Amino acid sequence: MSREALIIWGGWDGHQPEEVAGIFEGLLRESGFKVELSDTLDSLKDRERLAKVDLFVPVWTMGTIEKDQLEPLLFAVNEGGTGIAGCHGGMGDAFRNETEFQYMVGGQWVAHPGNDGVTYTVRMKDRQSPLTEGMEDFVVVSEQYYMHVDPAVKVHAVTDFGDVEMPIIWTKTYGAGKVYYNSLGHQADIVRMPQTLELMRRGLLWAARA
After folding, report:
1. Chain-centre distance of CA 136, in angstroms?
2. Residue 179 reports pLDDT greater than 90
3. Rounded CA gap, 210 and 207, in Å?
4. 1 pLDDT band (50/70/90 cuts)?
5. Which of 9, 155, 159, 171 is deepest in the core (most CB within 10 A)?
6. Where do the domains of the chain lie, and which CATH numbers do they carry?
7. Does residue 53 surpass a pLDDT of 80?
């Protein structure tokens, strides 16, 4: 039986959410997932439906989420073991007023000094992990996210802000669910980079309920 994924896209248009959601849909379908795409947070209200979802992928920068939308999602991950995985602002800067969502994610965007067009290196921090094994460090020209990060997360890749080492990729658990986050992916062209695609493919598969 194939695993099921729910991708919900929306929020701020500057991150090209529909296009990025389509890229993730392709990665998951290639890996044998049954994928549902939605552009409304009301898709989260159906607790029975969410219980069947093995992976939730938010692509929703900023915006607001109502209690009757958020609580079923938190329950599905925490109690049901639904995985959650995503990138950049679509997961790391979603629903700024919802601290429990941020706690589940393991971090929250704070700033991107220099805005778009900054050249920086992505360094693999945990080369023994299947999430990064065999991956080389690489350079990206994009937004460089400075984030508030839960000290309990497992860090897999980093970048440098002067003397500060800032996590880019991390994993954690939220109750029974697995959480994967990657701060790359300002727009679809960055998500389509071969390195980002491979890192996201591994992260999506890792987070999904087995």
Report:
1. 21
2. yes
3. 9
4. confident
5. 9
6. 4-207 (3.40.50.880)
7. yes
Q: Which residue has the tokens 């549902």?
A: 36
If phi > 0 it is left, if psi is from -120 to 50 it is alpha, else beta; for residue 169 that is beta
Q: What is the DSSP letter of 132?
A: T
User: How far is Cα 60 from Cα 58, in angstroms, rounded to an integer?
Assistant: 6
Q: pTM of the predicted model, to two decimals?
A: 0.98
Separation in Å, CA 121 to CA 58, 65, 140, 141, 157? 25, 34, 6, 9, 10
Q: At 3, is the secondary structure helix, strand, or coil? A: coil
Tell the residue number behind the tokens 């009301």, with chain if given. 42
Structure-token pair, residue 79: 């109690």
Nearby residues of 208 by Cβ (< 8 Å), 6 or more positions away = 3, 5, 33, 54, 55, 83, 85, 178
Q: What is the pLDDT of residue 121?
A: 98
pLDDT at 125 (0 to 100) = 96
